[in-house]
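Complex 335.
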Amino acid sequence: MKKFNDLKDFADEEIHALLELANRLDVQPEAQVLRGKVLSLLFLSPSLRTLASFQAAMIRLGGGSFVISPDMSIHGLETRPGIVMDGAAAEHIREAVPVIASYGDAIGIRAFAERRNLEDDIADTEFSSLIELIDTPYINMESAMNHPCQNLADWKTLDDLGIPANGGKFVLSWAYHPKALPLAVPTSTLYTAARRGMDVTVLRPEGFELPEPLMQKARQAAEAAGGTVNETDDRVAAMQDAHVIYAKSWSSTRHYGDKLADQELRSNFVSWCVDEPWFDNARKDCRFMHCLPVRRGVVVSEPILDGPRSVVIHEARNRMLVQMAVLHQMLGSGS
Ligand code: CP
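Predicted structure with phosphoric acid mono(formamide)ester bound:
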């Protein structure tokens, strides 16, 4: 495997093989398989789970990793193309990225959306420009529109819980958050649930529709896998017989890049905090999923997050296991 960027790059059998490998490595550790291998980790955006789980994954497989982020004692990273560097930053990403990559056998890169121009972000322009600077295998640790490690972990979580692929009802719900957040998790989660063959409903207020090209990508995946994709702002209809609700806040696509207009629109939807009444007409055992970090009492009520519906810690642990599988296939002896 030379890149892990988007689940759409993988055949069904390849996804299932990664999930099986993740399950195997959980019970049959291979503590030497990546001995001598180094993973470079570049975080241009913040993280807790991705940062910790990649380092833990490399240690568990016998390899090592190092982390670089702009918060560290480095020379100040300039990212703008064509700039005269007479300001604070003393190093450009055009040198920094290939240098970091040259120290490892593979590189993981996180660079959130710039959220200025929706078309650029849909095209994952910034991430693509970083990838052009390297020639080592790479892992997308979250870009403007992709978060494949989270997606694979969520797929594993759905399998672990026995939630059916065909016939399973998956509600991807917008939730209130005081800030405008990226679209990577909601759009790639939508694709993942559709690709798994589930009946997916996107529940969101008007103005927070997901971009049409990504809805289309999910519809095509669902059609091929025997599932469906719908969207609505009607919570009761959306939650009818749901097996799982996956909550996430995201930016208004109507006001993309316009902070003030987004703020004004989202302030009408403070009540979109997932709570027990949301589950009134769902399946009794309907689960709550979220990629984390999550704001308690804002995105989801504390009783739901701390209660039996929540599988958020299970999801987070699965991050490490599926990344071990990806690293095993990317850097192991059979790669
Ligand atoms: N879910 C996730 O990617 O978490 P972090 O942002 O903490 O890495």
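The two ends are 6 Å apart (CA to CA).
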